[in-house]
Amino acid sequence: MNDIIQEAYEQMYDGPEVDAHFEKPLVIHPRDRSTDFLKPIYAKLDCNVVTESTGDEALDFLLEHAERVIMLGHGCPSGIFSCGVSKRLCAVSDQQVNLIHGKDNVYIWCYASAFVEKHNLKGFSTGMFISEDSEADYIGVKHDAFDVEDNNEEFARLVGEYIHLPGDQILDNVSREFNADMIPYNDVVEYNSNLLRYFP
After folding, report:
1. Number of domains in the chain
2. 50: domain range?
């Protein structure tokens, strides 16, 4: 169990006054080797991180009190898959919208923008995001042996560089640098970049 989850349980039973420690940005990044490339996004951020099995009550407590929620992993238009972080299929879905609504969050998983738009949420998000060769093959995006890996590394580096900024500025900076540096020779980057969104 993550230390922050244990602390959340203790806080839940200590009383109504919430420690400021829980107001820091919350990162939900289910432990999964296929999304390890996203770790640089929060590596230098002062935040609480949840990567493994939790109690759903404690997770919802953290979602409610965090000033910003950064969600990274695999998912679908219904939410971000828990992959062991929660007993629920999705760690964050329509049932948790009320806990994160109004916050300038970060939503990085396949079809996250559909989830954000459906629930009138705020923040930086991805559309369908190619992060594996098989996804590029399925969609029909041309790529060589290194295009997907280069895309993943550069995307995570850029988002990590600007993660402390408001979501609209994350989009502006990431899109500008992503496009200028890589689109001329990487169709995977072009595909992913065109689907980055900010919802005010």
Report:
1. 2
2. 1-129
State how beta strands 75-76 and 79-81 pair.
antiparallel
One domain, residues 143 and 186: yes
Strand partners, 83: none
124 vs 41: CA distance, rounded Å: 13
Query: Three-state SS across 147-198?
Result: HHHHHHHHHHHHHHHHCCCCHHHHHHHHHHHHHHHHHHHCHHHHHHHHCCEE
Do 192 and 129 meet the contact criterion of CB atoms below 8 Å apart?
Answer: yes
Model's pTM, two decimal places? 0.92
**112 and 172 assigned to the same domain:** no
Dist CA 120 CA 116 (whole Å): 6
Is residue 69 in some structural domain? yes
Which runs of consecutive H residues, i.e. helices, occur in 33-132? 56-65, 97-100, 112-118
Helix, strand, coil percentages, rounded to 5, for the chain: 50, 15, 35
Q: Within this chain, do residues 153 and 96 fall inside the same structural domain, yes or no?
A: no
Same domain, 125 and 65: yes
Residue 200 covered by a domain: no
Cβ neighbors of 165 (< 8 A, separation 6 or more) are: 173
The pLDDT tens digits of the residues spanning 36-92 come to 999 999 999 999 999 987 789 889 999 999 999 999 999 999 999 999 888 899 999
